[in-house]
Structure formats: C-alpha cells, structure tokens
UniProtKB/TrEMBL annotation:
Protein name as annotated: ATP-binding cassette sub- F member 2
InterPro entries recorded: ABCF, P-loop_NTPase
Keywords attached to this entry: ATP-binding, Nucleotide-binding, Repeat
The keyword DNA damage appears for this protein: no
Lineage, highest ranks first: Eukaryota, Metazoa, Chordata, Craniata, Vertebrata
Cited PANTHER family: ATP-BINDING CASSETTE SUB-FAMILY F MEMBER 2 (PTHR19211:SF15), ATP-BINDING TRANSPORT PROTEIN-RELATED (PTHR19211)
GO MF annotation: an example: ATP binding
Keyword Transit peptide: no
C-alpha cells in the first residue's frame, strides 16, 4: 500500500517513525528522498539532538557495537 501511495505523487507525507530500525545507508537514502520531495511533510514530534547527522550516525553505530558486544558476551557465557 505504501509503495502505491508514493507512486501516486502525493502532496503531503505523514511518516510514522521513519528512521526506526534503518541502517546508516538507508537513513542516507531516506534523507536524500525527503530533500528531493517537493510536497509537504507532517511530523509528530521533533527532538533536536546534540550535533549534526554525522554525530547521530556515530551514536547509532556506537549503540550497535554495544549491543553486539553484549550479545557476544551472552553467547560465550551460555
């Protein structure tokens, strides 16, 4: 359904948590697509984080590394 709606050339997008569970490359592609979109966009809440998008990516990569480390520890302790 979402692909069909995008194909219809909408004037306004209402994304719901568009960056949840995206890897860094997909987040970049989404940002490029949003920048090229000529319509409007309605967001629920925007929270400004410290730094720019690069700082946010580094934070996500750090969290991922921590999660992988914890998973490795758990599998070795079993």
């Amino acid at each position: 359904m979402s692909a069909w709606l995008a194909w219809q050339d909408p004037h306004v997008l209402f994304p719901d948590k568009p960056t949840n569970h995206l890897d860094v490359e997909t987040m970049d592609a989404l940002a490029d697509a949003i920048n090229e979109f000529e319509g409007g966009m309605m967001l629920r809440t925007i929270t400004k984080g410290p730094g720019d998008i690069l700082a946010y990516k580094e934070l996500l990569e750090s969290r991922l590394a921590d999660e992988e480390s914890q998973l490795t520890k758990r599998t070795h302790n079993v």
